[in-house]
Amino acid sequence: METKVESRSQLFSLADPDMDQEEGSSCRREAAVKNNPSSAQPNTGKRKLRGAEIICESLLREGADVIFGYPGGAILPFYDALWSYPQLRHILVRHEQSAAHAADGYSRVTGKVGVCVATSGPGATNLVTGIMGAKADSVPMIAITGQVARAALGTEAFQECDICGIASSCTKATFMVMSAADLAPTIREAFRIALEGRPGPVLIDVPRDVQIEEVEIEFPEIAEALAEPVSPETLEGVQQAARLINQAERPVIITGHGVLTSWANQEVKGLAESTGIPVITTLLGLGGIPSDHPLSLGMLGMHGMYWSNMAVDQADLVIGLGMRFDDRVTGKASTFAPHARIIHLDIDPTQVGRNVPVEVPLVGDAKAVLRELLPLVSHVERKPWMDHLSQLRQDHPSLTIPPSDALQAQQVLANLNELMRENPDTIVVTGVGQHQMWAAQFLGFNKPGTFVSSGGLGAMGFELPAALGAQIGRPDATVWSIAGDGGFQMTLQELATATESKLPVKIALINNGYLGMVRQWQEMYFENHLKAVPIPGPDYLKLAEAYGVPALRVTEPEDVLPAMRQAEAHDGPFLIEFVTEATANVYPMVPPGGSLGDTLEDPLVQLGH
Known about the structure:
The protein contains 24 helices and 21 strands. With 609 residues, the protein is of the alpha/beta class. The protein has three domains: 5-217, 3-Layer(aba) Sandwich (Rossmann fold), CATH 3.40.50.970; 232-395, TPP-binding domain (Rossmann fold); 409-586, Thiamin diphosphate (ThDP)-binding fold, Pyr/PP domains (Rossmann fold).
């Protein structure tokens, strides 16, 4: 049978394995290999191995040391090979979606490529949500799926599905490997694609008999990843950007997740300090500049700080770094920053100018481009602008805890923030919904890689499995999973994974008995027609006990901090159920169809309460 490698993506060519990589990608690959002392060295001789063994050897050579997966018939030869590769730690999740989320969380806190594995059919399709989440948030990931034997392809065999076709829109590339001889170069190429440029997921589908097939192979050498120089067009743009920055009277910097993936946080801090320009972050940009830095204004967007939204709305220059100007950041795009000229730096040329008009486009790795920009900018005294921003913060406080007889979720997060000041290496992983927004508002992140959340896809249920991945990636860090009661019920089975793998994740379950964000929208914009939003759950303490996880229930504000300290002192997973006010709403809020200038404040704040 003719051997071949099938790729559903034409973005990259297998004929060019030594393609230069951007500086951020180079840093990521170097870290991936250096952080794994078990990585194999290039082998100069040929060896006879089965396909499954080639996969294991290739993963080790790429710096992988952890796999999140769930076995099944079509991937069993790979699991058999794992028996001989103890350097590859396998974490058995309880659902394949959790494997992808865990690989995502692991990648975000380590800078390495996350690896997840599943069998064919439903195992492969269950990965798709987590793969799409990684694509949306630019997280490098390799997903390996088993497939039916080559002779059965196209016959609608048991658990056969075209996972390459299904995943083609939510990956950077997909490969079906039809010969064991092609496995090593394909995996080499997949890691390169996952890391270079804008990072993202790659899927490799391997028929069962390819995993069994024995071939004589010679592993390809891992070429040194060289930083691609900043292009002449971008260098010209850097000159123009510097002129605009030095002339601006009301400038702001907006940093996104790209600053973190390129490890450009120090360059951003340097740009802010050398120019005196305040820095605002997107949701996934949190940690790109220390929250307690004098020039940090916090988060902007749909539930961003009021003063941050007003600063962008009134600015005369917006410098967007490693962010996409997506709808949750801009509000109504046509009214975004109506008085501002916009400089946009992104590694993905398709994102620059995509959503808002840009005067100075800069395409390249954030770290490399900012290094070119820094010598060209100067500090300008902008006292009227800075005084105005200070007054905005004073007159429009956004971080308020409404008075109530019930425990407020904001109070829970404010108390957690006290613990995080004592331990700035704490990692927080959130789900999606009201608790996510309150965490972004009330928690301070002073280091990159300490805030992990599903931003672009917004996948409920992300929090617990991603926290487990983060805990494996950073075993010495305290990891908190901030969960809503709705999202927690989607992946709570991973409590078993936490117990079995002895992962000391601390879970703060914000239980308001509702799908809170949906209820808020129904209340505010659908005439309070509350439909399908109450979501009763189990007795979470009994549930935790069944999984062997100690748990507490907290209903009073004075008990919040002691419970958290008890959880952190416990050597193992720990769950705290915080029973909070059922109908609290998240403010500030940009109304649907509104601009940042239309940001709504908490009515209680406006009343002076």
